[in-house]
Design a protein that fits this description.
Layout lengths: L1 E4 L8 H14 L4 E6 L4 H5 L12 H9 L7 H4 L1 E3 L2 E4 L5 H8 L8 H6 L8 E6 L5 H9 L2 E6 L6 H17 L5 E7 L7 H14 L14 H8 L4 H4 L4 H15 L3
Parallel strand pairs: 1-5, 1-6, 2-4, 2-5, 6-7
Antiparallel strand pairs: 3-4
The structure holds adenosine-5'-diphosphate (ADP) and magnesium ion.
C-alpha cells in the first residue's frame, strides 16, 4: 500500500502527518517505509538525521541512477531505520531532479521504478511531498495507491484543493489508473474557533459526499513543534496527548479500511 501525503500549500501538516502516521502504524506492528520526497528534507530532519546535506546517498542519487539507467545503490546505503520504520532521505539536491525530469522520457514513472519492487517488503509506504504540484509530486502520485490530503483550517482554500484534485484526476487518467483518494485529514484544529468550524463545514459541504473525511482530526498543539524539535514522534514525546491519540486513531482508520 503506497500512500502519498500531498497538499501544494506549505504548512498543512504533511511532514508531521507522514512521520507520526508511520510511527502510529509501526506501533500497530506494521512495517513502514517513509520516503522523503521534498528537497527541503524536513522529514529527514524529523527522523533525526541532523545534516541531510552531508548524506552520501539520498533520493537524489537513487532518482539519478534510475534516470541514467545505472545500477541502484545498495539499500543499506540509503535506508535509515528506527524500529519497524525505514526512511529514504532527501536533501536540497533533489531539486535538481525536478529540473532534469522535464526532459526525461517517461520521467513520471521514475519513483515507481524504485518503489514497485520494494512494495512487498512493507505494509505501508508513505511518501512526503513538497509544497507544489510539480514533477516531483506527480512522480509520487504516479507511484501511489492513494493520496492523503492534510487540510489546515487556518490555510483553507477551496481553489487550492480543487487544483490538487484536478491533478489527481489527470494522473489517474493518464499515468496511474489505480490511484484513489484515501481521505482528507483536518490538521492543526482548534475546535473552539470560528475559523475551524467554518473551514470544516466547507470541507464537509464540498467534499463530504465524494471523499472520505477522516473522523480523526489532529488538534493544534505546541507539543508537535516540541516533538519535532527533539526528532521524536508525538507518540514517544507525549504518548497521552490528544495529538498522539489522534494519529493513533488515524492509523486505525486506515487499517480498518482494509490494508
Ligand atoms: N497539530 C499541530 N499542532 C501544532 N503545530 C503543528 C501541528 N502539525 C504541524 N505543526 C507545525 O506546523 C509546521 C508545519 O507543519 P509541517 O508538517 O512541516 O507541514 P508541511 O509539511 O505541510 O509544510 C511545523 O512547524 C510543525 O511543527
Ligand atoms: Mg513538509
Amino acid at each position: 500500500m503506497i500512500i502519498t501525503v500531498a497538499n501544494q500549500k506549505g504548512g498543512t501538516g504533511k511532514t508531521t502527518t507522514a512521520y507520526n502516521l508511520a510511527y502510529a502504524l509501526s506501533h500497530e506492528g506494521k512495517r513502514v517505509l517513509l520516503v522523503d520526497f521534498d528537497p527541503q528534507g524536513n522529514l529527514t530532519l524529523c527522523f533525526g538525521i541532523e545534516q541531510p546535506d552531508r548524506l552520501k546517498v539520498s533520493m537524489f542519487h537513487i532518482m539519478n541512477a534510475i534516470m541514467s539507467d545505472e545500477l541502484l545503490p545498495a539499500p543499506d546505503q540509503y535506508l535509515h531505520s528506527q524500529g519497524n520504520i525505514d526512511l529514504t532521505p532527501s536533501n536540497i539536491e533533489l531539486s535538481i531532479i525536478e529540473i532534469n525530469l522535464r526532459d526525461e522520457m517517461g520521467g513520471e514513472k521514475t519513483l515507481t521504478t524504485l518503489l514497485e519492487p520494494m512494495k512487498h517488503q512493507y505494509d505501508y509506504i508513505i511518501i512526503d511531498t513538497n509544497p507544489s504540484l510539480g514533477l516531483l509530486t506527480i512522480n509520487a502520485l504516479a507511484a501511489s495507491d492513494s493520496v492523503l490530503i492534510p487540510v489546515n483550517p487556518q490555510l483553507w482554500s477551496a481553489t487550492g484543493l480543487t487544483q490538487l484534485l484536478n491533478i489527481i484526476i489527470k494522473v489517474k487518467k493518464r499515468i496511474n489508473p489505480r490511484i484513489t483518494i484515501e481521505g482528507i485529514l483536518m490538521t492543526m484544529c482548534d475546535t473552539r474557533t470560528l475559523l475551524y468550524k467554518e473551514a470544516f463545514r466547507l470541507v464537509q459541504d464540498h467534499y463530504g459526499e465524494s471523499i472520505r473525511i477522516f473522523e480523526s482530526q489532529i488538534p493544534l498543539s505546541v507539543k508537535v513543534g516540541e516533538a519535532n524539535f527533539y526528532s521524536q514522534s508525538i507518540m514517544e514525546f507525549h504518548p497521552k496527548s490528544k495529538v498522539a491519540l489522534a494519529y493513533q486513531g488515524l492509523a486505525k482508520e486506515l487499517m480498518n479500511h482494509g490494508y
